[in-house]
């Protein structure tokens, strides 16, 4: 619904990406990245950190009305962004070193820097899976 409201408005450049129809669960990072960027824009508008040109071009009330619903997903989007970035780091690590016990230990080290317990648990499961191979 958000895309439909934004598509034909002055805020069309904030339109979320079109969801993938196939393998949609493997491509959710586009939507999460859009959500994180949109929340960042909302934060900048709310804290009045816009330059003069942005203030002139943006209808802040309209942005708040059309993107304000993202506040409900702030915590979840940061957790999912953390999972996405960690997944990419794990992917690079496995491509570089392959599946071995050293890789599992390096993956476990990645989980130490994570902020959310859910992301840590997921990474620990991946490390255990790599170690078991």
Explain this structure:
It is a single chain. The chain is mainly α. The chain has one domain (2-98). Helix content is 68%, strand content 0%. The protein is built from seven helices and no strands. The chain has helices at residues 2-7, 29-46, 52-57, 60-67, 74-97, 101-112, 117-132. The longest helix is centred in the middle third of the chain and has 24 residues, at 74-97. The protein is elongated and about 55 Å long. The protein starts with a helix and ends with a helix. 11% of the residues are buried.
How would you describe the shape? elongated
Low-confidence parts:
none
Oligomer: single chain
Distance between the termini: 44 Å
- Name the helicity range: 55-70%
Tell me, rounded to a whole number, the average pLDDT. 85
Strand content: under 5%
What count of helical segments does DSSP give?
Answer: 7
Sheet of most strands: none
Helix-strand sequence: HHHHHHH
Radius of gyration: 19 Å
Short description:
This protein has 133 residues and is mainly alpha-helical.
Topology:
Layout: H1 2-7, H2 29-46, H3 52-57, H4 60-67, H5 74-97, H6 101-112, H7 117-132
Helix pairs in contact: 2-4, 2-5, 5-6, 5-7, 6-7
Key attributes of the depicted protein:
133 residues, mainly alpha, 68% helix
């Amino acid at each position: 619904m958000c895309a439909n409201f934004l598509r034909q408005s002055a805020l069309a450049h904030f339109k979320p990406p079109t969801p993938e129809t196939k393998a949609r669960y493997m491509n959710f990072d586009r939507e999460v990245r859009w959500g994180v960027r949109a929340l960042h824009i909302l934060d900048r508008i709310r804290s009045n950190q816009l330059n003069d040109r942005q203030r002139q071009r943006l209808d802040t009330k309209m942005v708040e009305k059309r993107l304000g619903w993202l506040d409900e997903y702030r915590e979840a989007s940061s957790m999912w962004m953390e999972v996405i970035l960690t997944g990419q780091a794990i992917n690079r690590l496995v491509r570089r070193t392959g599946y071995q016990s050293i890789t599992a230990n390096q993956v476990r080290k990645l989980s130490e820097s994570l902020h959310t317990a859910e992301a840590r648990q997921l990474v620990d499961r991946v490390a255990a899976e790599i170690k078991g191979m």
